[in-house]
Design goal:
290 residues, seven-stranded mixed beta sheet, 14 strands, 30% helix, 28% strand
Length: 290
C-alpha cells in the first residue's frame, strides 16, 4: 500500500495559474469557472513533497456518477508520485462511482504510463474500445487566423433550441450512432450552455445549412455542411468565428481541440490547412463497460 501522505491536498487551482502547455486542462477549467458547463463539477488539487502539482476535475451526472475526469499532472513528477496521486483519484470508492461511459482527458509527458495505470485500476469495470472512439486530435493554432466574411447569400447566427433536433439527427448519421441515448438533449445542452453557431440561407425560409457546436469539455464538434452548400468556405467561417469567441472569453492560452475520425479526410485537410496542430496522441480516452 502506498503512503498517501506524500500528497497534500491544497486549494483548487485556478485556470489562470495552469501552465499554458496544459492548454486542454486550462480551457476545461476556464469553462467551469465561467459557467460554460451545466455539469456538476468537483475540482481537487494536490502537491507532492517534491512540490509537484496535480489536479483533477470530476464531472458528475444527476446520479452522482463520475462521467469524466480532466487531469493535470506535473511533467516533472516521478512515476511513484503519479501512482500515489492516482490512488487518490481512482480509489476503490471512486472507481465504484464511474458512469456507464467514462472519459479521461490528459496532456502529459507520461501519457502512456498514466493511461496504463488508469486501466489497471478500472479494468474490472471499464475498458477502452477503439472501434467506438478512434480519432485524430488537433489543437487550435497559437496565432489567431483572420476572420472570414460570410459568403454572399448566407447569414451567420447563433443556433437556437429549435435547431437541436435536426443537428442531432445529422450528428447520429455522421458518427454512425444507432443507440438509445438521447442525442437531441445532448445537442440542446451545447446550444443553451455554450456558443454554437449556424449558417443559414439569406432567404425568407432561412434554411440551416451548416453548423458547429462547442462541447462542455473545451472541444469544437458536430461540424457539418449540407450537400449543395459545400466548397464555399462555410466550415472555415464557422471554425474561425467560434475560435474567436472562445479566445475572447477564455484567453489565447486556452486552446480549443477537435477530434476527427480517422476516415474523415475532408475534415483532416480542413484543420491542417487552417494551421491546427495534429497531436502525437489523442489526449482524450473513452472507456466503456468491460
Amino acid at each position: 500500500v502506498r503512503n498517501k501522505s506524500t500528497m497534500e491536498k491544497i486549494a483548487p487551482i485556478k485556470s489562470t495559474d495552469v501552465p499554458k502547455e496544459f492548454s486542454i486542462f486550462k480551457l476545461h477549467l476556464s469553462c467551469f469557472e465561467k459557467g460554460w458547463t451545466g455539469d456538476k463539477v468537483k475540482t481537487e488539487t494536490y502537491r507532492s513533497k517534491t512540490d509537484r502539482l496535480f489536479s483533477v476535475i470530476r464531472h458528475l451526472d444527476e446520479r452522482e456518477h463520475i462521467t469524466r475526469t480532466d487531469m493535470l499532472i506535473d511533467d516533472e513528477a516521478s512515476l511513484e508520485e503519479i501512482d500515489g496521486w492516482l490512488d487518490e483519484v481512482l480509489s476503490e470508492s471512486n472507481v465504484g462511482k464511474l458512469g456507464w461511459m467514462y472519459q479521461v482527458n490528459l496532456q502529459s509527458r507520461n501519457f502512456e504510463y498514466v493511461i496504463k495505470s488508469i486501466e489497471k485500476r478500472i479494468g474490472g469495470t471499464h475498458k477502452e474500445d477503439r472501434k467506438k472512439f478512434d480519432h485524430f486530435m488537433f489543437l487550435a493554432p497559437i496565432s489567431m487566423p483572420e476572420n472570414m466574411a460570410v459568403p454572399q447569400g448566407y447569414l451567420l447566427e447563433p443556433l437556437s433550441e429549435c435547431h437541436a433536433e435536426p443537428v442531432a439527427v445529422q450528428w447520429a448519421l455522421d458518427i454512425e450512432y444507432f443507440g438509445i441515448m438521447n442525442l437531441t438533449g445532448h445537442v440542446l445542452k451545447n446550444i443553451v450552455e455554450r456558443p454554437s453557431f449556424g449558417i443559414f440561407t439569406a432567404t425568407e425560409s432561412k434554411d440551416l445549412v451548416a453548423w458547429l457546436c462547442f462541447y462542455k469539455g473545451g472541444a469544437a464538434g458536430m461540424l457539418h455542411v449540407r450537400e449543395g452548400h459545400r466548397g464555399r468556405g462555410l466550415a472555415r467561417v464557422l471554425l474561425r468565428h467560434t475560435l474567436a469567441v472562445v479566445r475572447e472569453v477564455h484567453g489565447e492560452d486556452c486552446r480549443v481541440h477537435v477530434c476527427v475520425k480517422k476516415d474523415n479526410t475532408s475534415s483532416f485537410k480542413l484543420f491542417m490547412s487552417e494551421g491546427w496542430e495534429l497531436q502525437p496522441v489523442n489526449y482524450k480516452k473513452m472507456f466503456f463497460p468491460a
